[in-house]
Design a protein that fits this description.
By secondary structure, the chain is α/β, with parallel strands linked by helices. It contains six helices and ten strands; from the N terminus they run βββαβββαααβαβαββ.
């Protein structure tokens, strides 16, 4: 069974100026532990596709299955990282990362240990007790990434997570993401409009065409991982 199976997916938004076809007959299979990047012009349906896989948005037609089970809403096996970090401003870095673990019923000691591990992984050990407003954009994004990783979802869905960062921070986070992906083996679905980033990260690059949101090409990136 593929990790994610998308069949004849379509999405039509009823916009102010009539219907907008965001996805049309999208078919895609993503295997376990695969790292897939989706590129394409703005408005081609990348976020719509991610949101439907995440269970945050409903399809107009077709289906998405994870581990052979149809997606009907959000699930703990799928973690999402957005471009805007969506941190709780009144919680410290540590409490922000611990929050998702609390929701999943982890005990206090395990929560703390896991949160600290992932905060260290993203290089924010010295900022565990800082509040989001004390952090730069890049640092906030790292907290959002630590929060998603800490839950250890089997599928990581990322919507331009590094889009707002400067080149150096982006390169650093790309490297961390790849390192984690290699050691912890997740299935990654990563949206970017940066083709270079897609090629650095992905084993498979999915190119979507402008209109109406369709997969134009799937490119296998055959670089050996270190
Ligand atoms: P991308 O992520 O590739 O930029 P989106 O998935 O955000 O593309 O959008 C795909 C298309 O659907 C665009 O034409 C966009 O304007 C439209 N769209 C997205 N969300 C909505 C919405 N809530 N209502 C109406 N149209 C929408
Ligand atoms: P942005 O992308 O918003 O510029 P960065 O992550 O590049 O954010 O960080 C901006 C500032 O925060 C820089 O001055 C950097 O030195 C500082 N900074 C970032 N991470 C750390 C860290 N782990 N420890 C200390 N300072 C940091």
């Amino acid at each position: 069974v593929p990790k994610i199976e998308i069949k004849d997916l379509s999405k039509i938004y009823n916009g102010r100026n009539g219907d907008v076809v965001a996805l049309q007959n999208t078919n895609l299979t993503i295997n376990q532990n695969e790292f897939v990047c989706v590129v394409g012009p703005s408005g081609c349906g990348k976020t719509t596709l991610l949101n439907i896989i995440a269970g945050l948005e409903q399809a107009s037609g077709g289906s998405v299955a994870v581990d052979g089970k149809e997606v009907k809403g959000p699930g703990k096996e799928r973690g999402v990282v957005f471009q805007q970090y969506a941190l709780f401003p009144w919680k410290t870095v540590l409490k922000n990362v611990e929050f998702g673990l609390k929701l999943r019923g982890l005990g206090k000691a395990e929560r703390r240990e896991r949160a600290e591990h992932y905060i260290e992984m993203v290089g924010l050990k010295d900022f565990a007790h800082a509040y989001p407003k004390e952090l730069s954009g890049g640092m906030k994004q790292r907290v959002a990434i630590a929060r998603a990783y800490a839950v250890q979802p089997e599928v990581l869905l990322m919507d331009e997570p590094f889009g707002a960062l400067d080149a150096q921070t982006r390169a650093q986070l790309q490297e961390e993401l790849l390192r984690t992906w290699q050691s912890e083996k997740r299935t990654c679905f990563f949206i970017t409009h940066d083709v270079e980033e897609a090629v650095i990260l992905a084993q498979k690059v999915i190119v979507m065409s402008a209109r109406p949101g369709r997969i134009k090409e799937i490119i296998n990136v055959d670089i050996p991982y270190p």
